[in-house]
Amino acid sequence: MASQLSNLVRRIVMEHQSELIEMEIMSDHVHLLVEVDPQYGIHRLVKQIKGVTSRALRQEFPKIRSGLPTLWTNSYFVSTVGGAPLSVIKQYIEKQKNR
């Protein structure tokens, strides 16, 4: 399922003229480092990612439908990185899998 989720997220980000810099899929959440056009807005991209992936994965994996009331919660955390070196942020995200 992680592979399908990864492919869906990559497609959605590309379709919305954004750039996926780093992604780490955990058992209960996903870390994304994404560059988004401010005119489009991160909130709209997150809404698209959650909606499309939920619909597609619940269709492909019926067990999700019966085991969970929803795939995603309404909440999410967003932070801007400003002038922080992207290599440091990427390294942080990559290391999350080992925690």
Q: Which terms summarize this structure?
A:
99 residues; alpha+beta; 2 strands; 13% strand; globular
Would you kindly provide a written description of the structure presented here, covering whatever features stand out?
- The structure is a single chain.
- The chain has 99 residues and is of the alpha+beta class.
- It has one domain: Transposase IS200-like (Alpha-Beta Plaits).
- It contains four helices and two strands.
- A two-stranded antiparallel ribbon has the order 1-2.
- Helix 1 (2-15) runs antiparallel to helix 2.
- The longest helix has 19 residues, at 42-60.
- The CATH topology label is Alpha-Beta Plaits
Q: State the oligomer.
A: single chain
Reading off the top of the CATH hierarchy, the class is best stated as Alpha Beta
Number of separate strands: 2
Give the termini separation: 21 Å
Q: For the largest beta sheet, what order do the strands appear in spatially?
A: 1-2
Strand content: 5-15%
Q: Helix amount, in percent?
A: 40-55%
Figure out the total of helices: 4
Mean pLDDT: 88
| CATH architecture level-2 label | 2-Layer Sandwich
Number of domains: 1
Contiguous uncertain segments of 5+ residues: none
- The assigned structural class equals alpha+beta
Q: What's the helix-strand series? A: HEEHHH
